[in-house]
Amino acid sequence: MPSVSAISGRVRTSILATPVKSGVLACAMSATVSKKVRLLSNAITEVVLYPPVKSFLERQGYVVRGEVRGCDLVARRGNEEPVIVELKLRFTLSLLLQGIDRLALSPRVYLAVRRPPARTRGVRPDAKQVRKLCRRVGLGLMVIGSRGSVAVIEDPVPYQPRQSKRQSALLLGEFERRRGDFNIGGSNRTPIVTAYRQDALRCIRVLASGPMQLAKLRVISGVAAAGPILRRNVYGWFDRIERGTYGLTVAGEQALSRFAQAIAALDEPAGSQLEQIVHS
């Protein structure tokens, strides 16, 4: 398949001008159709998307027909697998489910949506999250401009997930370091009690008795990373009294009651060890 470099530093694209050996359309191809099929900004039905997509595919040597057994558009080139395109003015869950259903008919299924104005709210059809979603379910994605340009953003290729060992290790590490469960799944407006926050809570629990040198605090709290936590002071709980000595701010004192339940669930240091260090 011939390749060309996009203008002004854009990513390299492939043109749908020759048969595709892999059985999928080329990526990120733009084509402009005649003025007769330009899209109106106030269009209210998907039928306005059909002419530019039809013209785009015909330029690549496909025979195109609309509304074939419930499919908005079906295209065929020689003995290749048929290309199925479902048209929608915007990217929706309904369109996604419809595309997944069409995969039972052909592995070459595209979702075609109109490109929204620049200031339109919500997720854009060519956004990274949408492209990733289409790749995961094996669907292609086309975006149609207001003047009839057609851009193939994603091709329908089989998805092969790649696990990130680093991210997986971070997930398991966070899970194992936490004590108790003080977060309600789905919440987004309340502080999350992470393992890092729990280490900070261990520190304020010890500092509740008064300012202390970092070396003692590290031993009593059992938090090896107490130094970085106090110096970064992400939550505004700690006050540097003097070099190597820290106390609590007003916010830190308030956190003692605010996170009392989470603090109670933390591993308490041995009583004899605590008493010996405090009185040393």
Strand tally: 12
Q: What portion of the residues fall into strands of 2 or more residues?
A: 15-25%
Oligomer: single chain
Question: How many individual helices?
Answer: 10
Q: Label the structural class.
A: alpha+beta
Radius of gyration (Å)? 29 Å
Mean pLDDT: 78
Distance between the termini: 77 Å
Name the poorly predicted regions.
1-24, 26-43, 268-280
What does this structure look like?
With 280 residues, this protein is an alpha+beta fold. It folds into two domains: 3-154, no CATH class; 191-278, Arc Repressor Mutant, subunit A, CATH 1.10.10. 33% of the residues lie in helices and 19% in strands. It has ten helices and twelve strands. The protein has helices spanning 50-58, 93-102, 128-137, 165-177, 195-207, 214-221, 226-232, 250-258, 260-264, 271-278, and strands at 3-4, 13-14, 30-31, 63-68, 71-76, 83-88, 108-114, 140-144, 150-154, 212-213, 238-242, 245-248. The chain has a seven-stranded mixed beta sheet, sandwiched between helices. Helix 5 (195-207) packs across helix 6. The radius of gyration is 29 Å and the shape is elongated. The termini are far apart. The relative contact order is 0.09. The model is unreliable at 1-24, 26-43 and 268-280 (pLDDT under 50).
Comma- or semicolon-separated keywords:
alpha+beta; disordered C terminus; Arc Repressor Mutant, subunit A; 280 residues; 2 domains; seven-stranded mixed β-sheet
Question: What can be said about this structure in brief?
Answer:
The protein is an alpha+beta fold. 33% of the residues lie in helices and 19% in strands.
